[in-house]
Amino acid sequence: MLLKTWILLIVVLLTTAIAVLALRNDRVSKLFHEHIADRPKRRLFLAAIGFFVNFAIARSLAYGNFHKIGPFHDIYIHGRHIHHLVWGILILLVVGFGWLVELGTGGEQSSIVASRLMSFLYGAGAALTLDEFALWLNLEDVYWARQGRASIDAIILFGALLLIGIWGGGFFQALLNEFGAQPKNQTK
Description:
By secondary structure, the chain is an all-alpha fold. The chain has helices at residues 3-22, 26-35, 39-66, 84-100, 109-130, 133-138, 149-167, 169-180; strands spanning 76-77, 80-81.
């Protein structure tokens, strides 16, 4: 593996470790729980942080590679170009498997750390994958071409979905309770 691969993997792991370790601090953890009251919103919040931070890092590395700034270059393994969406898919597969075996779903301290880790990694994997969404559509490298705009659109839409989940979840739940729980033959 080449330098860019190692840098990308180290950055993902480093940002994940920083986020998880920061939440181990008693004062930070207390504020986290006070201001984000329920667990699903905390998981969404961590996924959003992982998503936006790792998107910015991946774009920065790709920009450096494209403009030949620093030691960055494309990744080739046995002559095949490996895009960073591959690493994102692998991360998403690991997180999905972790959630299938209910890693991070309990209430004990180790489970809480695992929940935070999986949430952050989910965001990171989604960012690395969606950053090359245009590659999915075109089946060719159009990252810096006009068609590459589809990746930015996908990033914006998914990022907005994460933010809606954080800020709008209570509202949508209230709407569902208000209009979904009412019998159909009853009118107000």
